[in-house]
Amino acid sequence: MDIRFQVDSAPVLGPALVLFAAGTVIRVRRGVWDKRRGLLRLAAAVHVAAVLSLTVFPLNVTWGEYANQAPWIGQINFVPLLTADITMVPNVIMMVPAGFLLPLLFRNATSASRATLMTAAASLSVEAAQLLSYIVLNNGRSVDVNDLLANTLGGLAGYALVTLALRVPALRGSLLAAALPRSAASRADRRRTATADGTQDAPIAGPVVRP
């Protein structure tokens, strides 16, 4: 039995983005989400969809006579920088928005090291998905430690950019207005404000609210 077909990103990610955008509009109109914070969530969703479109899709499903018979372990490049070249640059650029958005969305992105680890974890998940697609679907994608390094570097660059942007008065207000209440950027701003006022920042109680 020979099965071969391709699953493109548009039929999968397109409807998912439309549904998320519709849900965002509904929440903004009901006052559940602030407009700027809704746009921030939507921007993050678009970035995730773009990354998946570039790294996981299209899914080329091949079973049967023409399936790739090479062992899955051969699809992994474990040696860093041995084959590094200019093709790593797009992988760096791809994750810059992730590093930029992390402190605006999540409370754990409180430092460059933590943001770097979060970006590395996201990149590792993508590489694992690529390997799984090869094992299950014979998708033909390889897993490269250089991609992991490049993605992580991009996340670090994005974090550096948002850190610089938050120091620019013309940008700081808009970014903090869009940042989620429990995000690292919002919490840091409250601490700075409390310090400037000579008061102590009260601890945030209650469960962690995921964006």
UniProtKB/TrEMBL annotation:
Superkingdom of this protein's organism: Bacteria
Region (Disordered) residue spans: 188-211
Coiled coil: none
Record domain VanZ-like: where: 46-164
Transmembrane segments annotated in the record for this chain: 12-28, 40-61, 81-105
Keyword terms: Membrane, Transmembrane, Transmembrane helix
Entries under InterPro entries matching the protein: Teicoplanin_resist-assoc (IPR053150), VanZ-like (IPR006976)
Name of protein: VanZ family protein
Native source species: Streptomyces marokkonensis
